[in-house]
Each structure stands twice: as structure tokens, then as C-alpha cells.
Amino acid sequence: MRRLAGAEDEEKWLAEGIAGIQHNAFFMHRALDANNLREVLKYSALMLSELRTSKLSPQKYYDLYMRAFDELRQLEVFFKDESRHGLPVVDLYELVQHAGNILPRMYLLCTVGSVYIKSKQAPSKDVLKDLVEMCRGVQHPIRGLFLRSYLAQVSRDKLPEIGSEYEGDANTVMDAVEFVLQNFTEMNKLWVRIQHQGPGTVREKQEKERNELRDLVGKNLHVLGQIEGVDLEMYKETVLPRVLEQVVNCKDELAQYYLMECIIQVFPDEYHLQTLETLLAACTQLMPTVDTKIVLTQLMDRLSNYAASSPDVLHEFLQVEAFAKLSNAIGKVIDTQIEMPIVGAMTLFVSLLTFTLRVHPDRLDYVDQILGACVVKLSSVPKLEDARAMKQVVALLSAPLEKYNDIVTALTLSNYPRVMDHLDDGTNKVMAMLIIQSIMKNNSCISTADKVEVLFELIKGLIKDLDGTDTEELDEEDFQEEQNSVARLIHMLDNEEPEEMLKIICVVRKHLMTGGTRRLPFTVPPLVFSALRLVRQLESQDGDVTGEDVPATPGKIFQILNQTIEVLSSVPCPELALRLYLQCAEAASDCDLEPVAYEFFTQAFILYEEEIADSKAQVTAIHLIIGTLQRINVFGVENRDTLTHKATGYSARLLKKPDQCRAVYACSHLFWVDDIDGIKDGERALLCLRRALRIANAAQQMANATRGSSGPVTLFVEILNKYIYFYEKGNPHITPSDVQSLIELINTEMQSDDNGNRRTHSDPFFTSTLRYIKFQKQKGGLMGDKYDLIKL
């Protein structure tokens, strides 16, 4: 009837019950004040009769029980004082057993029993055994659970444990354990029985009520865990087997899960470790519907924390072979629970791996074994689509990286890449980014070609398209971040042995060349600079170093670089390819390889001619060519003349006159290099400047024709600064009169435009240049004498 009743009815019944307790408690208190034992027992029994109701839910029944419990406290105080009721406690213990109804009788008996034990007129074990046995008279699940909970509560401080005043010859710790175990056993039976009451339509409500009552049962295990004197031997031989017997035999999903959870939480970690086999055997005997993975996960987490608490306990794990036992148990659970979702299995593997990394960090074979088991499980499902399972796999793969702070260690795990193969493309990239971030964070250096091969297999999701995925679909910002990470990674690959470093470069190149047109502009430059670093290393060793397999010579490396940049130029990405060709040319020059440097320049000029059409890109490219050629001194006269002729020719053919002018006067530096071995052809340098001056004049005339104004004199001032530079450096073909004439030309241009209108503003660049000349005049010395020849 209760189960079909509404909340309003329950509130009414609770109110009636509380009113009945208060009514009878009033008369009981009057009897207590009068020290009238007969009336006290009468009204206390009537008061406790209100607990006989079957109409209330556990929550409401608890409210009623607490009202009665408070009154029983007062009653116990009365029973303790023999002078008030005039009856020896033994006789009182007999007297309360004559109460008419069993439930009030048992509450009164437990209350008097508490006083009886405290009086020490009988061994506590006898009284406790008597009470726990007689409580069997109440078999209604809810009433019986609360009665036994009351018994546990009033007897907690009267157990004959070590250090207790009730311990003695007749009372031992075993008696205390036996009492708690028996009470636990009976409470568990009552708790499980609730599910079999009432029609099946209210099963969900029954489960909710059982959840509300579970702490009453679990408190017994908490008491067992707190009893002083329960050593490992007693726990192993008595406590754990008796508790597990109840857990396994009750065949109830909720009870098994909750009680296993309690066992793991309330007993010491060292006890779990020493009884691991027994505990794990029980896990495999639980009902198939019990979420065993959470139980095992909690157990492994506790053991992991125990291992991390002190290095001194690690030898205990070795003695009991904890890893082997846990691994076998997890394997059995996964095999027997066929319907366990893949996320459950992955969660177990993550917990086992966490345990292993804390307890056996040096046993990489254990780590690889776990990863291997994970591969087997993942292989049994067609495709991993569960996002939660994917998250657990990422956690599994991340754990070794976080523990060892060294990707090199993870690269030795043969099953690591096999696990990654089961990730989808998006998660594979996330994992690859985590690997690269770990390398960057820990500044790890990958120093062998074999490890680089494994590493690039792990991060292949970033290097190439997987399963035909299109890079066009990726967010541009995310894509750039991924490729920049790969670029940073390439700089972390290093080996002081040139032969091995060349092998690393070849392995990286092999992987990068599969990246597609969008990736190469990000990944080829760091590869090129890594190879150039090796070239300079070889150069510093004064001679070529050869190995057994691949000769690590600058010539061999430049061949690889030429092929690599050629692929980049066909992407197409000609501006970047041109820059890299020029970098290689400069490196070849440093190695005194004139033909190689010439070939790189040739490739750069071909790109300029055939691929670079944008006028701005042409300007940038020609200045890069001029700057690089100016720094190179390896070329003979013929080759240098060919290249400088090409450079000056391209400079004069730029689209815009100002760009032509600036490129041509920059070419003057190709004929006058200010170092000891540099070329010093002052006449050709002057020719470049004069040619630039003609172009500047033409630019002024064009500006005047199109806009009616000659525009600023910036180009003339820039050329003037070049004249001054070469004049300072001692070019004999630059005379003071040349500088003076150019200054006068600029002044003329500054004074008026072609229409005869006087300009009202001055050029700050020109003003600064004149100030510099005056400063040099005032400075004195040889340079001052030189500048005195220039009349301002």
C-alpha cells in the first residue's frame, strides 16, 4: 500500500507517527521524573510501537526513527542509574524481554544491553552475541535494518577491541569482529530482500529506496576498518573472506557494486596489496551487470597513490607480483564481460597503465604489454567511433609522455604506433600535437634515424592526408599551427655524427615529400636549414667525412637540397624556393664549391625569369639576389661577370622606374665589396650609379608629364648617399666634384619644379645627409680633410 501512496499520504502518516511518539514520550518523561519503572517501560514500548509502520519510505522512516532515537538516549540514562529504578541491570535485561511486541522489545533490549555491557557484570561478547541473535526476530527489511543500525550505534564504543576497557581474558578482538560481521551479514540479507517485495512495476522505486539505505549496511564495514587490533593476518584469514562471501553470494548488482566499493575505501592500502589475489578473484565472480571496471579502477587508483606515497613500499608490490595479478584480472573481466563497451576496457587499461608507471616506471615491457592488450581489444571493433573511448585512448597514449618527459622512451614502445593507428584522423592529429608539445616542453633531442622514422610514423596525421582527407576542409589557422609545430620539431632532430645526421635528413625528407602542396612551404624550409647546419658542421671539420653507407659530404647534401627545393618550386611557391636557392648558394660558397654555388644561382635566376611575375615580388627577389651575390667571393672572374651582368640586366628591366633606379644603384655593391678579398672595381660601380641617376631623371620627367609635378627628390638623395659611401671607402672614380654636382642638382630640384613654382618644403632625408657631411668636416682628421674638398 505504501508503494502506491502519494507524497501527501506519506507526510500525513509521518505526522501521525511523530505525534504518537511525542504523545507517549510525554508520559514516559513523567514516569522518568517519578522513577516509575513500570510506567517507563509501558510508555516507551508504546512509543517504539510507532516504528512498526510499513507505510513510510526509508527517508520518511528515518525521520521517525531519529525522533525515537533521541528519546531512547534519555531512557538509557535512566537505565544506567540503578538508584532510580531499584532493579539490578541483569534483572532489568530480563524484564524488558517481556514487552508485548518484538520491535519495541528489541529496541529496549539493545538499550538495556548497552547499559549491561557498560556495567561489566557479564562479558561483553556474550551480551553482544545475544543481542545480534535476537534481532533476527525482526525480518521486515526496513524495520530490521534500522533496528540493527541502532544496535551497531549503541555498541560501537563497547566493542572489546585493543585498548578498550572491555578487552579482557573473556573478550578478544575476534569477538568484536565476529559481532560486526554477523550484524553486517544479517543487514545485507535484509537490504537485498527489499528488491523482492511488491510488484515488479515499482522496481525502479525499490532501487531508489535501496540506494537510500545502503549507508546503513556500509557502516558495518567502516567499523571493521576502524577496530583496533584487526591486523593483516586477521583481515586476510577472517574479515575479508567473510565479507567477500556475502558480496559474491548475494547475487545482487547494487549490493555487490556498493560493498566492493566500501571494501576498497575503508580498509588500508597495504591490506589490499597483501590480499590482492583474493580481492581480484572476487571481482571476476561478480554479476555480469556489475560495473566491474569502476571497482577495479578505484582499486588500482588507491594502490597507485599508495605506491606514490613512499619509495619504501615499492618492494611490497614486487613481492606480491601486483602487476601480473592486476593484468590477468583485467584480461579475465574484459573477456567474460562480452557486452562491456569499448570505453570500459580503455578505462581499465588507463588505470592499469597509471598503476604501472607509478609502481614500475623502469619496466617498459609492462607498458608495452598494456598497449599491446589495448591493440587487441581495439582490433575487435570495426571502427572506434565512441568519443569517450577515444578520449581514454588519448589518455593512455599521453601517460608515458607525461611520466618519462622524454619522447625517446615512448619511441621504444613497439605497440605505441599500433594504438595510434586506431584513432580517427582528428584525434590522431591531436595526439600528434601532444607528442610534439612534449618534445618542445622537455627540449628532447631525437638523435637516430630509426627513432625519427618511428616518430614521423606517429605524427603522420600532421605530415600527410590520411584516408583521402582533404586539407582544404581544415581551418586555415589550425592548419598553420599544425605545420608550424612540425617545422619546430625538425629543428629538434640532431646528431653530432654527420653520417647519422644525414640519414635523419633523408628520413625526414622522405616523409615530408608526401605532404602535398599546402604543407611543403611550411616544412621544407626547416629541413633545408637543418641540412645547411650539417654542411657548416662539415665545413668546420676541415674536410669531407665519409661513412660506410652514405658519404656525408657537402656535395651529397647539396644534391639532396637541390632536389628538395626543386619540388618546392613546382608547388608552386617560387619566391620561397628562390630564397632557399640563395641560402644554399651562400653555403656552397663557404665550402668553396664554385660549381655548386653557380648552379644554385642559375636555378634562382630561372625561377626569377619563368615563375615570378608579380612586380613587387620581382623587386624583392632581385634585391635578394644582389645581396647574396655581393656576399659571395668564391666565383672566378668569368662566372661572377655572368651573374652580375644578369643581375644588373634584370634590375634595369623592372616595371617601375623608382624600382629600377634602386636595384641598379644596389648593383654598384657587386663591383666594390668592402673587405680584404673583395672586388674593387670602382669604374663599374660608378657606371651603375650614373645609370641609376639617368633612371632617376627619367622618373622625374615621367612624373612631371603625368602629374604636372616632378615629385620628391628621394631617389636623387638615395643615390647621393651611395656616392658618399663609395667616396668614404676610397673609390678613386668618385670625386668631390661628383658629390658636389649631385648636391647642386638636388638643390636645384628642391628650389623649383618644372613650372617655375618655388617649393616651400625641404626633404628631411637630404637635410640629414647634408648634416652628416658637415659633421665629417668638423670632425677633422683624414676623413675631415677628405670632406673639406666638398663645397656645400
Keywords:
mainly alpha; single chain
| Amino- and carboxy-terminal Cα gap | 118 Å
Q: What portion of residues is helical?
A: over 70%
Main sheet specs = none
Strand content: under 5%
Summing up helix and strand content along with how strands pair, one would put the structural category as mainly alpha
Please give the number of β-strands.
0
Number of helices: 39
Overall geometry: elongated
> What integer value in Å does the Rg equal?
46 Å
In terms of quaternary structure, the protein is single chain
Estimate the mean pLDDT confidence: 89
Low-confidence stretches: 544-550
Can you put this structure into words, describing what you see?
With 792 residues, the chain is mostly helical. The protein is built from 39 helices and no strands. It is elongated and about 140 Å long.
What's the short story on this structure?
This protein is mostly helical. 72% of the residues lie in helices and 0% in strands. The chain is elongated, with a radius of gyration of 46 Å.
Topology (SSEs and partners):
Blueprint: H1 7-33, H2 37-49, H3 58-80, H4 82-85, H5 89-95, H6 102-119, H7 124-134, H8 141-155, H9 173-193, H10 203-226, H11 232-249, H12 253-266, H13 269-274, H14 276-284, H15 292-309, H16 314-320, H17 322-336, H18 342-359, H19 364-379, H20 387-404, H21 407-411, H22 416-420, H23 425-442, H24 449-458, H25 460-463, H26 476-490, H27 498-512, H28 520-540, H29 554-569, H30 574-590, H31 594-610, H32 615-631, H33 637-652, H34 657-667, H35 682-707, H36 714-728, H37 736-751, H38 764-779, H39 781-788
